[in-house]
Amino acid sequence: MRLTILGGGGFRVPLVYGALLADRAEGRVTEVVLHDVDDRRLRAVSRVLAEQAAGIPDAPRVSATTDLDAALRGADFVFSAIRVGGLEGRADDERVALAEGVLGQETVGAGGIAYGLRTVPVAAGIARRVARLAPDAWVINFTNPAGLVTEAMSRHLGDRVIGICDSPVGLGRRVARVLGADPKAAFVDYVGLNHLGWVRGLRVAGRDELPRLLADPALLGSFEEGRLFGADWLRSLGAIPNEYLHYYYFNRETVQAYRSAARTRGAFLRDQQAGFYQEAAGPGGSALLAWDRTRAEREATYMAENRESAGAGEREADDLSGGYEKVALALMRAIARDERSTLILNVRNRSTLSVLDADAVVEVPCLVDASGAHPLAADPLPGHATGLVCSVKAVEREVLAAAESGSRARAVTAFALHPLVDSVTVARRLVEGYTGVHPGLAYLR
């Protein structure tokens, strides 16, 4: 089975390859094709993967190319993990937003909109090429903003594109762990959009254990989201929010923390990974050790400003080992081997959430088999969650409209409608700022 990874020079690719190396079952991936527009990054990541495979019999073969069409032909699965504009673009997204006093995070608020406006045209182009060159392939989208990009690609690929994210999985695992339940035996009632969802229940043997957690202040304070949001707020919500909702519920504190930081997250990753790629591409030394060291620092500092502003402390050791690669492997197994599995994924809504139309991409539990991912029925969201989901989905639709039409006015509307942008005037200045620093937004007119 052949897997093509778009963005194959990306820093997290060794996580995916490591998961493939551990998969010894029949029908596993035997060939990996890395595609990237940056040949230097491809060489560096290829060195890491070669070290990972050393001494492992029948390790998946790895090749690398900058030719997109060649990479797509013959693929059974395509992982899309591109970053349009690179980490320099992410740092610019953050900087422009923070200068206006609003959030610049890469998937939330102004930063997420800017990243989406750059990425959607490229992702849509890739989807069209997949449909032409590898029509039987399944596309698994890692590219952020994951829900928005998956929806853009679904307009060309239908249900053959599925978005994944490790945040819901990590949240469900932490909730199960604090309740003393086996995460593999628990059903996580999680509903929302990507980076905008809530755990509303955790069922073990048919019993919902979440009320027991919400009623116990000590248990609530014993895991990351409990410390991040506070026990009182979680009890008020009657649910456990995805960590990214901290940007919404505590926006003022978060923006202040980000503005006070020595460097933005994007700038930190840009500088950190530049050091890794330089070291990994050079002669001598171990590229794998350099990657391991860089990854450990990357994971430990994830959402550090949010945790600092909330007094939430350091990340737990169990949350430092990644996770999205495990979701990807489980998804591939379920489809390729017809191993029925339930996974939280980004898929077209159909009739799951009545407040959204059938084509809106949502993040919900799905039954996965050889025919793809099928969203499970879900109870309606409470009013506060419905309002936020509908508001952010309206923003995503304006981003898609702006990307399709090239309309600068639609781009301004996308910014202005976002709950974390507090003025149409600010929205106009954001568009001016972003088009001034990103050549990839020159299409807006």
What does this entry show, briefly?
The protein has 20 helices and 13 strands. Helix 1 (13-22) runs parallel beside helix 2, helix 2 crosses helix 14 (265-281) and helix 4 runs antiparallel to helix 14. The chain has 445 residues and is an alpha/beta fold.
What does the model show?
51% of the residues lie in helices and 15% in strands. The protein starts with a strand and ends in an 8-residue tail after the last helix. It has a 6-stranded parallel sheet, sandwiched between helices. Strands 7, 8, 9 and 10 form a 4-stranded antiparallel sheet that branches. It is α/β, with parallel strands linked by helices and 445 residues long. Helix 1 (13-22) crosses helix 17 (324-337) and helix 5 (109-133) packs parallel to helix 6.
First-to-last CA distance = 44 Å
Task: Estimate what percentage of residues fall within beta strands.
Answer: 15-25%
Strand order of the largest sheet: 3-2-1-4-5-6
Helical content stands at 40-55%
Number of helical regions = 20
| Average pLDDT level | 94
Structural class: alpha/beta
Given the C-alpha coordinates, what overall shape results?
globular
Q: Main beta sheet, described?
A: 6 strands, parallel
How many individual β-strands?
Answer: 13
Radius of gyration: 21 Å
Unreliable stretches covering 5 or more consecutive residues: none
